[in-house]
Design brief:
homodimer, 11 helices, 32% helix
Amino acid sequence: MSPFFASRWVAPLDHVTELGADGDVGLPAGFRAAGVTAGLKPSGARDVALIASDSLAVTSHAMFTRSGTQAAPVLLCRERCELGSIAAVVVNSGNANAATGDAGYDDAQAMQELAATATGVHPSRVAVASTGVIGVPLPMDRIITGVRAAGKALAADGDRDFSEAIQTTDAFEKRARVQVALPSGTVTVTAQAKGAGMISPGFATLLCFVQTDAAMSAQTCELLLSVCVKRSFDRISVDGQLSTSDTVILQASGASGVTVAPESEDELRLGEAIDAIMRQLALLVVKDGEGARRTGRVLVRGGDERTVQRVARSVANSPLVKAALYGADPNWGRIAQAVGAAMPHMAPLALDISIEGVLVCSAGSFVTHDPYALAAAVAGDEVEYEVQLPGDGAEAEVYFSDLGHEYVTINAEYTT
Amino acid sequence: MSPFFASRWVAPLDHVTELGADGDVGLPAGFRAAGVTAGLKPSGARDVALIASDSLAVTSHAMFTRSGTQAAPVLLCRERCELGSIAAVVVNSGNANAATGDAGYDDAQAMQELAATATGVHPSRVAVASTGVIGVPLPMDRIITGVRAAGKALAADGDRDFSEAIQTTDAFEKRARVQVALPSGTVTVTAQAKGAGMISPGFATLLCFVQTDAAMSAQTCELLLSVCVKRSFDRISVDGQLSTSDTVILQASGASGVTVAPESEDELRLGEAIDAIMRQLALLVVKDGEGARRTGRVLVRGGDERTVQRVARSVANSPLVKAALYGADPNWGRIAQAVGAAMPHMAPLALDISIEGVLVCSAGSFVTHDPYALAAAVAGDEVEYEVQLPGDGAEAEVYFSDLGHEYVTINAEYTT
């Protein structure tokens, strides 16, 4: 297993090969990227990022947060962007351009136009994303300088700089580079994600950009992205908080000459590869989880589709369950409590609970087990919880981070 | 203002007089209580509590958690208790008797019968409540000894012992004793509550017992209790976690000879008094909130009834908002984010946000204000947030605790 695909929850794929180790750079053919320092972050770290395809045939799809308080760039992208043919993406970190009103919308549009000029495409083909503090106007002088500098710095190996420039409270880089052997030929896929807090199971709550040199229609981009989001960023929770700014974009330059036709074996294999990348990136976001020590996975079976979803999220978002995960405490009573909270008026409930394969609760009642063995089993980096509800058929999983002192420190001291 | 009614969110009432200061004891006429040490808590603190009315005419009402994983005593009370004429209540702390199956139910029934014998009433007139660890069988030998000892210790001034014996992670006592001047005469009301964690806005998530020597029908008990719960325990959140065991019981002995008739001025005045007591007790639970430093109140206006409720709970349960409250950080962007998360697909949303009366966001966009003055304003014990949504008519409030290091410490180290 490669260093990138590190989680036991992402199955290795024979046709997917990681390109190099950490630190290696290089985008798929037809893409250039850059990340520069524009002075938006007090730390002086990179904070303006740009990615652009040189191919006029580039296709794409984009998905955004469902929040009712969407940031200006999200509103702009939804209203003024050709989501099926995004050629360039401009991103800033350090300021979310959210709750900034009409002036914020104008600023997002100015960013779009600056990036269009810097990359030589029509503004409607430029997506914009901002992440950082809410409710503070964008310092447009710095944005102008930053986007121009990023345009000049665009390079085929600019993915690491890009990745650095989109981060905020991230403790480590979240970046993938793989080669995918398809029946019709070999393609490359790269991806850069950011996110550590304000991560909710309800879709992304982060930024993630995926590039491939495969050739495919915008409809295929939409199909692959929406299926993969459902199985990755839609299934994670750091703190149950839906962000104002979540954006996920897939771009296909077509520069490899390998065409991925609808309903082909190529499409299936490429989908598997993007799925693995996005699941691993999502797990890295959970692992980063603003000071997280351990990652949990809750798998709920039985009942109906709505119920298993609600129960899985109730467990994953429970601060009591999360604190127990942090403390390596196999406190399954809190799992039972979180399940019950999500299924009001259903008592008594004949549920089974297993932790790391050990049955601790059967038909709603405790099962005698070795607490020391179980305590040792939950002390690892990844802990698995299984809940079986009465009935069968439906199934839902959610990945979640723990709740520890570092989360409190980061979020009690992170400045407005 | 008396020491008990300490919050600015509970308006003083001219016809309600607090009886004595902290440490003073004494129940309304017709009640006796006790709290003893039975060895359920490793600390050796009191852990079995009993309260009983000597009046055969005692009336009552009881309300329970809506959880789908209700503890055995809750199931027992719902199935085998005359909720309109509860004469005695037996409680243990240190063990929730939850997720304990049929044997747990039998144990709860044995507790009911033991308390019936100890107090001389029919078992169906005894309510049972247990609080503590989930999924561990009740040590019945200790329960038997404890209930018998409590029966012998019953005393008119046993309310403080009772109050101590129902506590778990509580940092301080939550107990009220007031005299209420009604048009028809003077009555006494006492109350004892416990709760610090697993506190959700969805009803009680705690134990609270209220006694009065007023004479009233079971229907009046039900009316007063349900209205007061709606305005108190239904409006608080420590961690958004609905417990398996929440129980609130109001008992009226009638021993004062003052009759409270339906729809009378007496009923209104007594309701105001119980409302004030239960609101203050609910605020004390939030204040205790497993290590909480500050209490927040979010008031949401506008929209419709369902929306304001959902938005208020989204803000109150947001770990980001709670961590900012802990850090005395007037980070209103997190309020905007939590509102947006509760109103998907409604962007752009013209919402106003005020913190401690300072308008920080108007029509969805930031308002320039003095950040230093605001930071000073949110450093107190109680912080008020107001959210105005488009439209008008509905209004909802939720009280919530902050999220700090102490919460993590308590919940990462609290043993299964």
